Sequence to fold (306 residues):
Amino acid sequence: MKRLRATLAALALLSSLACAMAQADPPPAPDFQPPARGSEPDDDYGKIIRFGEQVFNHTDQYAAAYVGNHLRCASCHLDAGRQPDSAPLWGAYVLYPAYRAKNHHVNTYAERLQGCFEYSMNGKAPPLGDPVLVALETYSYWLAQGAPTGVKLKGQGYAKPPKPAQAPDYVRGQRVYEARCALCHGADGAGQRSASGETVFPALWGPDSFNWGAGIGSVNNAAAFIKSNMPLGLGGSLGDQDAWDVAQFVDSHERPQDPRYTGDVADTRAKFHDTPDSLYGLSVNGHVLGSDSVAPGGGTRSAATQ
Fold:
């Protein structure tokens, strides 16, 4: 009997410890620093790393066959994919393969990059093994060397701000945009390009922007990117409410059609955009978003004629 009581006491202690451990805060995300610029190996492998960085920074130049706008990978992943809280490549590479609800299967990292071309770049996916895709994979792998796989790293992805006190609002967001964003991205959201035609500031809506299938087309993702990174060089200077409001304003404009468009905006929303953070298929200022989108991939046909 004494032995039984001792066993039961030990089990109770273990149960209590397990419960305490389950309720304890998770360990802090580890810091990670990508390798220094210029430290690429001086060999054929290093050449591919450097080519991958060029593709990343000048996508419409080095991957012209696969893009339908003038955005660059670096438009949303700042500092050549190095900057924390800007979906850095070193934080993304270590999370794949992973299941994605967006396409309902386990994606490799290469497949994830293909999706970026199809949606964010409003283009078409480079085939697996294409030099462009291999170079981007190699550059990402090199940036992530030494990082643990499958672990939440500090600065990985976008740091999502808490839900605002008030629901995101178009009018308030417009005021924030005009005061803090229009100088770079233009009053019409069309961005700015240099005299040589290279993107300086990306288009945020309109035919040269990302299409409706892009992740940044969801207000929560846009708010997260804006809060941490915008205005450029002044990330964190906007309050949470302002970040959500201006994200609502930006995502309330037409852009190229979702490549998954079924021929009907309501049906496309039901299948692919039925979340509180997507404005696709909703009426904003009397206009149903997605109803007058140009065709994906750089085309010009309206949704109604597809």
